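debug: dumping io for the single-chain case to check the tokenizer round-trip. Nothing else runs in this session.
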Amino acid sequence: MLDEMIARHDTGFVFISHDLPLVMSFCDRGAVMYGGHIVETCACA
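debug: decoded output
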């Protein structure tokens, strides 16, 4: 459902979760934050 909405509207969103496998299952890119700062980014394929 989210994939279809993103493709139709050519947009993105911020998804906040502690479940990294869930994030990697539908996101193109991920970021890890610590203390309010991004400390690591990666491509989620």
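debug: round-trip ok. The two ends are 18 Å apart (CA to CA).
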